[in-house]
Amino acid sequence: MCYVKTLLEELDDISLSVDSVRDQATLMTSRGPACRDVVEPKLAKLNLNFHMVSQCIKAAMEMRMLRVRQVEISMDSSSLYSFTETQRQDLTGEVRDVLSLSLHTLYI
Predict the structure, then answer these.
(1) pLDDT tens, 66-83?
(2) Is 33 helix (H, G, I), strand (E, B) or coil?
(3) What is the pTM of this model?
């Protein structure tokens, strides 16, 4: 579960950066119609991409948590948190894939 927390923390950090870019873009749009015409479409694309990425990460994390709960439920109480190394690698790999796809989408 540590990687889930790390991924969500990184999303929070990126959110701060995106907010800063939005603030700068708002200032630039006040410089006149020429700046506004350039900045507004790029800001709209940033907003859309960031929204898609954050929703993708959040949905993947919810799915991951559901799968982990299913595994925990299927185990007896004495081995509740004893994932095999293969299970850990599978979970970590899937989260990395989601993050990679999400970051790629953000920077397109």
Answers:
(1) 777 766 666 554 454 555
(2) helix
(3) 0.59
- Rounded Cα distance, 80 and 1, in Å: 13
Please identify which residue in the block is written with the tokens 């989260």: 95
Number of domains in the chain: 1
Spatial distance between the Cα atoms of 55 and 87, rounded to a whole number of angstroms: 25
34 burial level (CB within 10 Å; 0-12, 13-18, 19+): exposed
Residue ranges making up the domain that contains 14: 2-106
Q: Which residues of the chain have pLDDT under 70?
A: 1-5, 70-108
pLDDT, residue 97, reads 66
Residues 68/18, Cβ–Cβ less than 8 Å: no
d(CA 89, CA 62): 18
Q: Smallest Cα–Cα separation from 5: which of 47, 52, 57?
A: 57
CB 53 within 8 A of CB 102: yes
